[in-house]
Amino acid sequence: MSSALSPSLDAVLPPLDLHAHVDPGVTTEQLQTLGNAIVFAVTRTIDEADAVGSRDDDRILWGAGSHPGLAKALDAYSSGRFRNVLEHVDFVGEVGMDRKLEHDRALEVLADSIAAAADAGKPSSVHSTGCHAAVVEVIGSASKGVVLHWFTGSQRLIDRAASAGAYFSINAAMSDNRISALPPSRLLPETDFPFTKRSGSRQPGDIETLERRCSVLLGLSRDELRQMWYSNLRELYQHMGGDVEVPTALHRALLAA
Length: 257
Ligand SMILES: [Zn+2]
Fold this sequence. Notes:
By secondary structure, this protein is of the alpha/beta class. 42% of the residues lie in helices and 14% in strands. Zinc ion binds next to strand 1.
């Protein structure tokens, strides 16, 4: 098994990152340092999401978020405004629940934001630190397009979420055991940059370390692994209805995988 990726495949199926933090004010020039990676960039507040709505970047998909670890984000959330903002972005993220903050409000915001995502036919990137059971409960059977990011819940919760249709985005800071516990047909790559810097992600879209490890863990070549990410993502979009517009580079990769 080769641990290198064929350059020709890398051009068609670029590095993919389902969850990274990118400054909403980043310039087009700065984005060029990310190479050809396709990055799902989350926002933390409805104001940030509003600000990215007018952007048009070739390889960055922007999310509408209300970060569950930020009280001001939860306070500022409004269902109507969130739905308006969502029309101008590509997905919902980062939303979810976090042990740090009040339960009821966070639950309400999570339930409403993933419902908005499902209505719009767009994926959602969901945070669940310290609240795995509650999050799996909320997504319930309405898990179309839900991607549980950096999920470290029990095997029972993994099975429940997977049978409800959820996907899991994994990063290089997760242990081999955590990654191996998840169903390969539901795996997607992420960096959660900058939070995985110490585990080897140098920038958003840098999934090199993750791919080297997953290649060994899953017994796949790097090429097969890259194809798996995109075919999993294609299925996620198909489950959602599949007619939402995505940037050309992503559209091409989804068709090629
Ligand atoms: Zn994050």
